[in-house]
Amino acid sequence: MTQESEIKIRIEDLSFFFGDFQALDGVTLAIQPQEIFGLMGPAKSGKSTLLRVLNRMCDLIVGVRMTGGVWLDGEDILAPDCDVVGLRRRVGLVLSRPTPLPRSIYENLALAPRLAGKKGRNALDEVVEASLKAAQLWGEVKDRLQESALKLSGGQQQRLCLARTLAMEPEVILLDEPTSGLDPISTAKIEATLLQLKNDYTIVLVSNNTKQIARATDRVAFLLMGHIIEIGDTKQVFTVPADQKTDDYISGRFG
Ligand SMILES: Nc1ncnc2c1ncn2[C@@H]1O[C@H](COP(=O)(O)OP(=O)(O)OP(=O)(O)O)[C@@H](O)[C@H]1O
Ligand SMILES: [Mg+2]
Q: Ligand 2 center to residue 145 CA distance, Å?
């Protein structure tokens, strides 16, 4: 049994409905600080839905309903009085398609911290530099910060989006298939960056690429049609899966 103090996010008996359709059924799991936790499963298994509950992005959809509980550092984030704006600052989300703003590289990173009240050129310069360094993009863009972010390659744009999330100084980083549109070299750069970042953050990585999950995560949950089939140490799950369905999935027999 994991100690409560070692749990960053605790999800208990979470069910999620889009109208009459149930997308998650009784999901229970605990995510620890300083780990990369993987969520894998075939299309429509509920991976993105689960991720979006963790920063309440799911609230933006009309007609949804949830039961069960989710706690971040012991704080109930599904409570009606939860500060959702504050929560989304603490729990950042990176989507599968890079979505830079049609502004300069610098502005992409400085905009949100400025809106959140960070003032002064020096303070913003520091955030821009630190977040680009953490996303391992600084060396490639430091001499062109005023150029449009849209001129960057797809892989660079995705690291820019990761930097933009980091600029908000989150505690948890959620990534929903962050490399699905990228070439192998850009993918490897993102994975290497995540490995560096895990010392300072809790990372939840959704991927339907089992090889990526095997390479990049410490622990993993296998989700199938809204149910958790198996949770465990990634090496263990990939070498001796406890459930036949997990075995079938990771050996490519379905999904
Ligand atoms: N806005 C929505 N309205 C109604 N149903 C939805 C909505 N979003 C998702 N669903 C349904 O919920 C189920 C889970 O979807 P979800 O996007 O979480 O799956 P996923 O595992 O992320 O799939 P993929 O690998 O394709 O991204 C699917 O059956 C999907 O059709
Ligand atoms: Mg998805």
A: 32
